[in-house]
Specification:
Helix 2 packs across helix 3 and helix 3 packs across helix 9. The chain is globular, with a radius of gyration of 29 Å. It has one domain: 3 helical TM bundles of succinate and fumarate reductases (Up-down Bundle), CATH 1.20.1300. The chain is mainly alpha-helical and about 260 residues long.
């Protein structure tokens, strides 16, 4: 006669009981649940995330550069106007915030944007190098690339070094022989009367224009807005933005050297 198996009426074992049984049976510890990385960090680890960071921080940089260029043009209105503009920046949103608070918040935002932009650019470069099947590219790889794209890394280095010199010249005053805190007009004239300094500014701002051109062109592609129908518009926007910004910046040292601003 066949043996009838008894049906257990015991409650089902929980996951913890199963884990205990696994430890008893095999002696192997059960791995603890891994900490879930925040979505923002996981997204940034991907190439798409880094491109988005490059685009967003690029927009922040472009906005700052354009606003700074517009502010510099006040020098053509005389010392009263440009100095008033400098004081207005220090008193922005005062009250309710303390004097220079908003200016420092803008500076911190820009510093963070630059740091993220640099890190994303470096990380993407490393990812691209590892993804290449061969160490050297063929000449045909450069046929479709523009001069701005090929020199993006070098223009970025030039702009970064120039930014440090610019701070030493007009913010800290250590590189400006006639520096007087609060007198923007005097500082501009004292700096740009030296033709080597003006030459540095002109060359650096041309490099900035080349960098801005490729950045303004590629930021749409970085966020997935890449349609052949819009490419002519993107090209015109990038060209206009880079040219207007560059001319606006270099017009000041040229005007000082020419005696228009003195």
């Amino acid at each position: 006669m066949a043996k009838v198996e008894e049906v257990s009426t015991a409650p089902a074992r929980s996951g913890a009981d199963d884990a205990d049984r696994l430890v008893k049976d095999t002696g192997a510890p059960v791995p603890e649940p891994r900490f879930r990385t925040p979505f923002v960090i996981e997204f940034y680890r991907s190439a798409v995330g880094k491109k988005w960071v490059m685009a967003v921080t690029g927009v922040i940089g472009m906005g700052f550069v354009f606003a700074h260029m517009i502010g510099n043009l006040h020098v053509f209105e005389g010392p009263g106007q440009i100095n008033h503009y400098g004081e207005w920046l220090r008193e922005l949103l005062d009250p309710p915030f303390p004097r220079t608070f908003t200016l420092w918040m803008l500076r911190v935002t820009l510093i963070v944007a630059i740091a993220l932009h640099l890190h994303a650019a470096y990380a993407l470069t490393r990812m691209n190098q590892k993804a290449r099947p061969v160490k050297y590219q063929a000449d045909r790889d450069y046929v479709a690339a523009t001069f701005a794209a090929r020199t993006m890394r070098w223009t970025g280095v030039i702009v970064l070094l120039f930014l440090l010199f610019h701070l030493a010249d007009f913010t800290w005053g250590s590189a400006n022989p006639g520096f007087e805190r609060g007198d923007v007009y005097r500082n501009v004239v004292a700096s740009f009367e030296q033709w080597p300094v003006s030459a540095i500014y002109i060359v650096a701002n041309i490099a900035l224009g080349v960098h801005l051109y490729h950045g303004a062109w590629s930021l749409f592609q970085s966020v997935g807005l890449n349609n052949p129908r819009f490419n002519p518009w993107r090209r015109w926007f990038a060209t206009a933005f880079a040219v207007i910004t560059t001319i606006g910046f270099i017009s000041v040292p040229i005007a000082v050297l020419a005696g228009v601003v003195e």
